[in-house]
Amino acid sequence: MIGRLNHMAIAVPDLAAATAIYRDTLGAKVSPPQPEPDHGVTVVFVELENTKIELLHPLGEGSPIQGFLDKNPSGGIHHVCYEVADILASRDHLKEQGARVLGDGEPKIGAHGKPVLFLHPKDFNGTLIELEQA
Ligand code: CO
Questions:
Q1: How far is the CA of 76 from the centre of ligand 1 (A)?
Q2: pLDDT at position 6, please?
Q3: Distance 60 CA to ligand 1 centre (A)
Q4: Which of 102, 126, 128, 130 has the maximal Cβ count within 10 Å?
């Protein structure tokens, strides 16, 4: 069912410092910071040959990643995003398998303008999973 790794998202307490680590220390190509007010984050995209890394920093009140950073003050891997061909069929399959889909179970338009769903970390080895329809 799952296809390519679309991205891995890392929550960071200091976006400029994290960008410098990826650009200067690791020598990767990074984007300018991109505010995404609908998602409560500012994102820097790190372009790799086979996937991308998203550096996430809270934006505005009630950012969905603030609680994660409170628990992980130096930052950490927040979620992984796998591509699926058909997000509704994938959701129905996961529910049949007993997995919990977060929210109301209806796909939302994600940061890349494509439908996404999130799956409960407790059902997936402590990892928050995002599914994106490719
Ligand atoms: Co994501």
A1: 14
A2: 97
A3: 18
A4: 130
* Per-residue pLDDT tens over the stretch 45-81: 999 999 999 999 999 999 999 999 999 999 999 999 9
Q: How far is the CA of 126 from the centre of ligand 1 (A)?
A: 16
CA distance linking residue 25 with residue 118, whole number of Å: 31
Cα–Cα dist 134/126, whole Å: 24
**Known catalytic residues?**
130
